[in-house]
Amino acid sequence: MIDLRSDTVTRPSAAMRAAMAAAEVGDDVFGDDPTVIRLQELAAGMFGMEAGLFFPSGTQSNLAAIMAHCQRGDEVILGQDAHTYKYEGGGGAVLASVQPQPLANQPDGSLDLAMVEAAIKPDDMHFAITRLIALENTIGGKVLPRAYMADAVALARRRGLAIHLDGARIFNASVKLGMPVRELCAGFDTVSVCLSKGLGTPAGTVLVGHGALIDKARRPRKMLGGAMRQAGIIAASGLYALENNVARLSEDHANAQRLGKGLSALGLEVDPVQTNMVFVRVPAASCAALSAHLANAGVKAIAAPRMRLVTHLDVDEKGIDLAIDAFGSFFRRSAAAD
Ligand SMILES: Cc1ncc(COP(=O)(O)O)c(C=O)c1O
Fold first, then answer.
1. Rounded to the nearest 10 degrees, what angle do helices 232-244 and 34-46 cross at?
2. What element of type H or E holds 120?
3. What is the distance between the alpha carbons of residues 241 and 208, in angstroms, rounded to a whole number?
4. C-alpha 159 to ligand 1 mean position (Å)
5. In the structure, which protein residues have their CB atom closer than 6 angstroms to any atom of ligand 1?
6. 3-state SS, residue 121
7. Paired strand residues for 208
8. Could you tell me which residues come within 8 angstroms of residue 51 by beta carbon, excluding any fewer than 6 positions away?
């Protein structure tokens, strides 16, 4: 099966599994797992940050970052479409008692910085205390360029706020822009970096940032159940991924372009493709039949009126062509029936 549901579906390669099997481990709750320490140091170094902290998931890393930046009753300004706002169970509100102030994402995925500034609350007892801005890059497969990231950092600094980045797919942005992550993310206080998306590990996220903030994030990580013991076995997959799977993200981007072009050639409406995500419009009435047809043809995908297809290291050009053919046979068949 070609699985285009997400880049989270990848299976660890034989070489990654070998690295995991050979990992030297300790007890990371005591802070002495050497492989976790190496991963945290490598990730922090790549981002030009002082420290890193290993988490089981991106959801937990984002939440622990919010808890490190904010107190109960503080506020975070973030996008209406941000994963941290929309897809993490409302953890910031539920578990951290931090009020989200969502703003509409613009078509390019950014937040209008004038709107961000206008949403910062004055120092008045009626309001929550605005403490944090949180951005996401890539967002919906779209890249926030460095100039925008720098402007957001400058706004945060000018208004005395902290700034966090959900960088679940920051390496896709970095590869697309041809810019090292340390440059792209310069000025952010914390960045949450997923290893289990395009980078292909079975699990794991590293939160990188200033030393004092990362130290603060240790308590919420423990509280949330994310402090693991012989975590070096998982961390080894992260080390392998950072050392071997970053530059190859360009192949996923090329495959996404190929898929986008192939679907456009079938007459389907496809959003411009930037990284590893393709969004294609499908008539709502066709979704159930399309899912079944694709599955029969060996393609796993979630059909929706704005359907997302994601490329990753377990899909090659041949798989992409198979998916294009499967869409083609479905829409030719439906046209014949009309
Ligand atoms: C942008 C973004 N941030 C955070 C996460 C959360 O990661 P996890 O699934 O590891 O909790 C995801 C997961 O898909 C994501 O897409």
1. 30
2. none
3. 16
4. 28
5. 8, 57-59, 83, 136, 166, 168, 194, 196, 205
6. coil
7. 52, 191
8. 40, 44, 208, 209, 210, 211, 214, 215
Residue of 10, 55, 59, 84 with the most ligand 1 atoms within 8 Å of its CB, for mutation: 59
Reduced to 3 states, what is the DSSP secondary structure of residue 144? coil
Q: Are 144 and 188 in contact (CB under 8 A)?
A: no
β-bridge partners, 164: 134, 190
Provide the residue type at 92 as one letter: G
Residue 325 Cα, ligand 1 centroid: separation in angstroms?
30
Please give the model's pTM, rounded to 2 decimal places.
Answer: 0.97
* Nearest protein Cα to ligand 1, atom 8: 58
Give the C-alpha separation, 228 to 235, whole Å. 11
Nearest to 197 by CA among 277, 110, 135: 277
Amino acid letter for position 313: L
pLDDT tier for residue 335 given thresholds of 50, 70 and 90: confident
User: 119 is written with which tokens?
Assistant: 């949403």
322, two tokens: 């198979």
Q: What is the 3-state secondary structure (H, E, C) of 182-226?
A: HHHCCCCCEEEEECCCCCCCCCCEEEEECHHHHHHHHHHHHHCCC
Point out the ligand 1 atom lying closest to the alpha carbon of residue 82: 1
- Of 99, 153, 91, which Cα lies nearest the Cα of 121? 99
What sections of the chain are H helices per DSSP? 14-21, 34-46, 58-69, 83-86, 91-94, 113-119, 146-158, 170-177, 181-184, 211-223, 232-244, 249-265, 287-296, 317-337
Residue appearing with tokens 């009626």: 126
Q: Which helix (H) or strand (E) holds 136?
A: strand 129-136
Q: How far is the CA of 332 from the centre of ligand 1 (A)?
A: 36
Residues 6+ apart with CB under 8 A from 188: 149, 153, 163, 164, 165, 209
pLDDT digit string, tens, across residues 73-122: 999 999 999 999 999 999 999 999 999 999 999 999 999 999 999 999 99
